[in-house]
C-alpha cells in the first residue's frame, strides 16, 4: 500500500520524514511502548520531535553512543540494548532503499547494533529524503563491520567475490571494530548476499537489511512525504 501525505509547510526534508514516522507511531503508542532509535542526523530529528510531542511511552533503546547522547539531551528515558527484551517501533535513516523494504545502512558506522534492533522490532520504519529510494542497490558502497585482526583475510575474501573494499578512514565502531566500505559486489540478490557476507570469518555484520526489511518507509521531498507500507 502506498499513499502520499501532503505537507506544504516550509520544513526541511528530515523533519518531514521524521514527522511522518512519529504520526504513525502515535496512532498506537501506549505507556508500555518501546521505541528503538537509529543513528544519524535524521534519527536525531525524530528524537527531538518525539521529545517535543510529550507522548507517553516506556523508554527508548539506542543503536549507538551518538544516539544515546541525543536521547539523553532530549530528556527521554533510555535502557541499554543489552537489557532490552523487546522493541515495538524502530526508526532509522537509510543510505539506500528498495520499494520492497530492503535497505542498505551503515553510513554512520552503527550497522551492527542497528540490525539487532531492527530484527527485534515489531515495526521497522525508515526515514530519509526521496533520493535514497533506488531501483537497484549498489550505488552506495556496502559498509561491513569486521574484527580488526581479520582485516587481511576478510579483504581477500571480499575481493574474491568481486568486491573492492576500502577501510573507512579514522573509523572505529562503538564495538571497537573497523568498517570496510565495499563497492563492486553483485547486489542483485541482497538476501543471499547478506548471509554470504556474514558467513565470512571475521565479519561482524554487513549493511544489507534484507532479512529484517522495513515495514514502513517515509521518503520526503519539498512537496511532502511519500509513505510506503509493505506487507
Automatic annotation (TrEMBL):
This is Ribose 5-phosphate isomerase A. The lineage of its organism: Bacteria, Pseudomonadati, Pseudomonadota, Gammaproteobacteria, Vibrionales. Coiled coil: none annotated. The keyword Isomerase applies. It comes from the Bacteria. GO terms for biological process: D-ribose metabolic process; pentose-phosphate shunt, non-oxidative branch. Keywords: Isomerase. It comes from Vibrio scophthalmi LMG 19158. InterPro entries: NagB/RpiA_transferase-like, Ribose5P_isomerase_type_A. The keyword Nucleotide-binding does not apply. Its EC number is 5.3.1.6. GO terms for molecular function: ribose-5-phosphate isomerase activity. Signal peptide: none annotated. GO terms for cellular component: cytosol.
Amino acid at each position: 500500500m502506498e499513499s502520499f501525505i501532503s505537507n506544504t509547510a516550509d520544513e526541511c526534508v528530515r523533519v518531514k520524514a521524521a514527522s511522518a514516522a512519529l504520526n504513525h507511531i502515535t496512532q498506537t503508542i501506549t505507556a508500555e511502548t518501546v521505541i528503538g532509535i537509529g543513528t544519524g542526523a535524521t534519527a536525531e530529528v525524530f528524537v527531538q520531535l518525539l521529545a517535543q510531542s510529550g507522548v507517553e511511552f516506556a523508554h527508548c533503546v539506542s543503536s549507538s553512543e551518538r544516539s544515546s547522547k541525543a536521547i539523553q539531551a532530549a530528556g527521554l528515558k533510555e535502557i541499554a540494548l543489552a537489557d532490552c527484551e523487546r522493541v515495538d517501533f524502530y526508526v532509522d535513516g537509510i543510505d539506500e532503499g528498495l520499494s520492497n523494504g530492503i535497505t542498505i545502512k551503515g553510513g554512520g558506522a552503527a550497522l551492527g547494533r542497528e540490525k539487532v534492533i531492527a530484527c527485534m522490532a515489531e515495526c521497522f520504519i525508515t526515514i530519509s529524503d526521496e533520493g535514497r529510494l533506488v531501483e537497484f542497490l549498489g550505488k552506495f558502497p556496502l559498509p561491513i563491520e569486521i574484527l580488526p585482526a581479520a582485516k587481511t583475510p576478510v579483504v581477500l575474501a571480499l575481493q574474491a567475490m568481486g568486491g573492492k573494499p576500502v577501510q573507512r578512514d579514522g573509523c572505529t565502531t562503538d564495538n571497537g571494530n573497523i568498517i570496510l566500505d565495499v563497492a563492486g559486489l553483485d547486489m542483485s540478490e541482497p538476501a543471499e548476499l547478506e548471509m554470504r557476507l556474514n558467513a565470512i570469518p571475521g565479519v561482524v555484520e554487513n549493511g544489507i537489511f534484507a532479512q529484517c526489511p522495513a515495514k514502513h518507509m517515509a521518503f520526503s521531498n519539498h512537496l511532502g512525504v511519500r509513505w510506503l507500507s509493505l506487507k
